[in-house]
C-alpha cells in the first residue's frame, strides 16, 4: 500500500459547465487495479494516476521533498523521498500519518483540479483511488468500478512483491474494506482473475456501456 492510498476526494470545479462522467476506480491490494487503469488509458480515457503523481512530487527535485524532509528529517536524499523509510515513520501512527497527509493532500487537490480543467471536454475521466470507500470519497464520483480477483490470486500477487510479508499483507487487509463489500457497493466490477485479454475485453465493453 503506497502513501498515496490516503488520497480519496474528487470534486468538480464549481464553474464546470460540461460534465464529463467521473469514474472512481478502486480495489483492494493486489487486485490488478493499476493494470485496469492502464487499459482504460489505452482506450483513450484520461486517467488521473495519483500514485504516479506522488512519485513525481517525491522524486528528485519534487515539490514535496523539502516539506517532507522538514517534518520527517532523514527521510529524503539525492533521489528524493525514501518511501520505505517514510512509510516506516507513519505506518500505524495516526498522528504522523495526518501530518504527512497535510503536506501531500493540498498539492494533490490542486493537481486534480488541473487535470479536470485540462480534460473538461472528455466524455469520461477515470480517477484511480485505492481507498475510495475507506476514506469516504465515493460520493464525489458518478460511477464506481471495483477491480477484483479470487483471494488466492490476490495473495500470490501481493506476496510476490519485494519486501512484502504475510504479516504485512494481513495488516493492510485489516484496514481495507473487504473485497466482498466493495463488490456489493460497486456499479461495475472488473474481474482480473482471468486472462489479460479477457480483462481488456471487459474494459472495452464497459467503456462502450458508459459511453451510452
How would you sum up the major sheet?
5 strands, parallel
CA radius of gyration = 17 Å
Range of strand content: 5-15%
Q: Give the end-to-end Cα distance, rounded to a whole number of Å.
A: 34 Å
CATH architecture: 3-Layer(aba) Sandwich
Give the tally of structural domains.
1
- Give the fraction of residues assigned to helices: 40-55%
CATH superfamily: P-loop containing nucleotide triphosphate hydrolases
CATH class: Alpha Beta
General form: globular
The number of E-state strands comes to 7
The order of strands across the largest sheet is: 2-5-1-6-7
Uncertain stretches = 1-9
Q: Which structural class best describes the helix and strand composition?
A: alpha/beta
Helix count?
9
CATH fold field value: Rossmann fold
Protein architecture, described:
The protein has about 210 residues and is of the alpha/beta class. The chain has one domain: P-loop containing nucleotide triphosphate hydrolases (Rossmann fold). Helix content is about 45%, strand content about 15%. The chain has nine helices and seven strands, in the order E-H-E-H-H-E-E-H-H-E-E-H-H-H-E-H. The N terminus is likely disordered.
Write the layout of secondary structure elements.
Blueprint: E1 21-26, H1 33-42, E2 47-49, H2 50-58, H3 65-71, E3 76-77, E4 80-81, H4 83-90, H5 94-118, E5 124-128, E6 143-148, H6 151-159, H7 166-174, H8 179-185, E7 188-191, H9 196-211
Give descriptors for this structure:
47% helix; alpha/beta; disordered N terminus; 7 strands; 212 residues
